[in-house]
Design brief:
This protein has 186 residues and is an alpha/beta fold. It is built from 8 helices and 5 strands. The structure holds CO-5-methoxybenzimidazolylcobamide (B1M).
Length: 186
C-alpha cells in the first residue's frame, strides 16, 4: 500500500483497484462455497489494515467541519468495511463523524441522534434481510426527530428503495456519499 502510494499511484486507484477489486473476488467465492467465513474474515481484516495505511493520504480535511454525521450499520448486520470507508471519506472531506459500529438498533440510532445532535445520519446495510431494519430505523428517526437528514447505502440498497422508505438520499459508494452529504448540507 505504502509502496504503491510512494511510487506515485493515486490513492483512489489504490483503494478502488487494490482493495475493493480484491474484495469483489471474495464475494462469489464465498457464495459458491470456495471460501469460508474465517477466510473471508481474514480478507476483511486485510482490507481494514490496508485502509488504515491509506487513511493519512486521503485528502486532508479542513479543520472547520462541514457538518456532523452519525453513521452505523443497521440491526442484525455485522458488515462494516464499506461503512468504515464511507466514514473515513467523510472525515477526510471535512465532516465530523461519530461511527456507532455495527448491529445498531433503531432505538440506539435515535439515542445517538439525541446525544450527538448530528446534521446527517448514515445507515449502511449489506444484507437483503437487514434492509427491513433500515426501513424501521428511517421510520423511527423521521417520527421522533426533526431537522436531521438520513442517507443510506450498501450493496443491496438502491435509490428506489431509499425513496420508498423515506430516506433523504442514497449513495452507491464512498465518494458518492461525500457528494450526497455535501448536497444535504446545502
Ligand atoms: Co457477508 N455477505 N455475510 N460477510 N460478505 C455478503 C454481503 C454477500 C453478498 C456474500 C455472498 O453471498 N455473495 C452475502 C449477502 C447476500 C444477500 O443478502 N443478498 C453475505 C452473507 C450471506 C453473509 C452471512 C449471512 C454469511 C453466513 O454467515 N452464512 C453473514 C452475515 C453476518 C451478519 O451480518 N449478521 C456474513 C458475514 C460476513 C463476514 C463477517 C465474514 C464478513 C464481514 C466482515 C466485516 O465487514 N467486518 C463478510 C464479507 C466481507 C462479505 C463480502 C465478501 C464483502 C463485503 C465488503 O466488505 N465489501 C460480501 C460480498 C460482496 O459484497 N462482494 C458479503 C467491500 C466494501 C468496500 O463494499 O460493503 O458494498 P460495500 O460498501 C460500499 C458500498 O456498498 C457503499 O460504499 C462502500 C464503499 O464503496 N456503502 C455505502 C456501504 N455503506 C454505505 C452507506 C452509505 C453510502 C454508501 O451512506 C450511509
Amino acid at each position: 500500500m505504502r509502496e504503491a502510494y510512494e511510487s506515485g499511484i493515486d490513492v483512489s486507484v489504490i483503494v478502488q483497484d487494490g482493495l475493493i477489486e480484491a474484495m469483489n473476488i471474495i464475494g462469489p467465492k464465498m457464495a459458491s462455497g470456495e471460501m469460508f467465513v474465517p477466510e473471508v474474515l481474514l480478507s476483511a481484516e486485510t482490507m481494514r489494515a490496508g485502509l488504515e495505511v491509506v487513511k493519512p493520504y486521503l485528502s486532508a480535511g479542513d479543520v472547520s467541519t462541514l457538518g456532523k454525521v452519525v453513521i452505523g450499520t443497521v440491526e442484525g448486520d455485522l458488515h462494516d468495511i464499506g461503512k468504515n470507508m464511507v466514514a473515513m471519506m467523510l472525515e477526510s472531506s471535512g465532516f465530523e463523524v461519530v461511527n456507532l459500529g455495527t448491529d445498531i438498533t433503531p432505538e440506539d440510532f435515535l439515542k445517538a441522534v439525541e446525544e450527538n445532535k448530528p446534521d446527517i445520519v448514515g445507515l449502511s446495510a449489506l444484507l437483503t434481510t437487514t434492509m427491513q431494519a433500515m426501513r424501521k430505523t428511517v421510520t423511527l428517526l423521521k417520527e421522533k426527530t426533526s431537522n436531521v437528514k438520513i442517507m443510506v447505502g450498501g450493496a443491496p440498497v438502491n435509490d428506489a428503495f431509499a425513496r420508498e422508505i423515506g430516506a433523504d438520499g442514497y449513495a452507491p459508494d464512498a465518494a458518492g456519499a461525500v457528494q450526497l452529504a455535501k448536497q444535504l448540507m446545502a
